[in-house]
């Protein structure tokens, strides 16, 4: 219980006690106070309620100075003056300080721009807001920016990967059984930029020399990527590695038995199987090439991708309703279709 309440209850109790009992109680309290003064620190710590009690006693009780034991009278006077100053500071506070408050949605937009562009400051964000037709002072923008300590924040991993995705490519083999129980091997080269399959070929007897030649045919010399991701298959022999080194490409090897470290090409291979090869019977190498070429035409020009914001590797233009009626065009014998507007 707070000390002021204890003192109040003691005062109420003393008002109904006898004179002798009251004097004995006062003597006991003074003795305890004297003992505490000898053992307690020189500067006792008093709370706000304790200070308020002594300020009120100083205004209501003329002999309050003789009863003060734990603080000096000057301290009580200083508390009173400090409370007087705080009271009138509160009474004199402005009701509507400064300019009108900025709308909450604009404050949220400013902080959203700051979070999405960690290298921007108030001038850049102010310029973007002006281009959006939002008239606000640059000092106001700076006011609502979140303060950061230390070095500027790092870019996100998503931004880092987006800046280097054009220099990444993946390669892999997958097997396709034929109707005569032979096994054909498909070599695929995927560019991570726009998820384009830049090269695809079929063979029944893959070798390191054949694989190196496929990599040479995948890109012109002035468009070679910086890195190629592959697994540790023995087909990528010394001749393949020499060819890659001569092209100026750095190989990035995945860990053993870890296809998840090469996810993009594995995803494309899965799409090839689920959307094409699992629904046809491959008679021979020629038939497999034909099926793959038909699927690649659909894959690049018409198939939408979640990672490309529902667009195709070769960007598709949005056709307005005024372009005509909607037509359905089949692919792979009707296994897939694309839809476009054509004038009647």
Describe the structure.
This protein is of the alpha/beta class and 344 residues long. The protein has three domains: 3-91, no CATH class; 104-146; 165-323, Ribonuclease H-like superfamily/Ribonuclease H (Nucleotidyltransferase, domain 5), CATH 3.30.420.10. The chain is built from 13 helices and seven strands. The strands form two sheets. The protein has a five-stranded mixed sheet with strand order 3-2-1-4-5, sandwiched between helices. A two-stranded antiparallel sheet has the order 6-7. β6 and β7 (336-342) form a beta hairpin. α7 (122-131) crosses α8 (138-144). The longest helix is centred in the first third of the chain and has 21 residues, at 19-39. It is elongated, with a radius of gyration of 41 Å. The model has no long low-confidence stretch (mean pLDDT 84).
CATH architecture of the largest domain: 2-Layer Sandwich
The Rg value, from CA coordinates, equals 41 Å
| Residues in helix, % | 40-55%
Write the H/E string, N to C. Answer: HHHHHHHHHEEEHEHEHHEE
What is the rounded distance between the termini? 89 Å
Order of the strands making up the biggest sheet: 3-2-1-4-5
Question: Main beta sheet, described?
Answer: 5 strands, mixed
Question: What structural class do you assign from the helix and strand content?
Answer: alpha/beta
Strand content: 5-15%
Top-tier CATH class of the largest domain: Alpha Beta
Query: What is the approximate shape?
Result: elongated
Mean pLDDT: 84
- What's the total helix number? 13
Number of individual domains: 3
The CATH superfamily of the largest domain appears as Ribonuclease H-like superfamily/Ribonuclease H
CATH topology of the largest domain: Nucleotidyltransferase, domain 5
């Amino acid at each position: 219980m707070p000390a002021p309440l204890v003192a109040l209850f003691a005062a109420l109790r003393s008002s109904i006690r006898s004179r002798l009992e009251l004097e004995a109680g006062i003597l006991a309290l003074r003795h305890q106070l004297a003992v505490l003064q000898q053992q307690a620190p020189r500067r006792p710590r008093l709370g706000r309620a304790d200070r308020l009690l002594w300020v009120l006693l100083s205004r209501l009780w003329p002999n309050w100075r003789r009863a003060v034991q734990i603080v000096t009278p000057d301290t009580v006077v200083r508390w009173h003056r400090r409370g007087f100053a705080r009271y009138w500071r509160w009474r004199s506070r402005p009701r509507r300080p400064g300019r009108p408050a900025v709308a909450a949605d604009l404050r949220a937009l400013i902080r959203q721009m700051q979070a999405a562009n960690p290298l921007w400051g108030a001038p850049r964000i102010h310029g973007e807001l002006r281009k959006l037709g939002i008239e606000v002072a640059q000092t106001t923008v700076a006011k609502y920016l979140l303060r950061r300590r230390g070095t500027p924040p790092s870019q996100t991993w998503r931004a880092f990967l987006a800046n280097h995705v054009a220099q990444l490519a993946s390669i892999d083999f997958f097997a396709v059984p034929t109707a005569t129980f032979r096994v054909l091997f498909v070599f695929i080269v995927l560019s991570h930029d726009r998820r384009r399959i830049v090269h695809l070929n079929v063979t029944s007897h893959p070798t390191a020399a054949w694989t190196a030649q496929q990599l040479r045919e995948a890109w012109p010399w002035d468009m070679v990527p910086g890195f190629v991701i592959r697994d540790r298959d023995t087909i990528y022999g010394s001749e393949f590695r020499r060819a890659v080194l001569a092209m100026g490409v750095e190989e990035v090897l995945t860990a053993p038995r870890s296809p998840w470290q090469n996810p993009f090409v594995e995803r494309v291979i899965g799409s090839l199987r689920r959307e094409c090869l699992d629904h046809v019977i491959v008679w021979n190498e020629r038939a497999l090439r034909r099926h793959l070429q038909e699927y690649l035409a659909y894959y690049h020009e018409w198939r939408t991708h979640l990672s490309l914001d529902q667009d195709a590797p070769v960007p598709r233009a949005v056709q307005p309703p005024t372009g005509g009626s909607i037509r359905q065009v089949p692919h792979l014998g009707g296994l897939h279709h694309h839809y476009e507007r054509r004038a009647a």
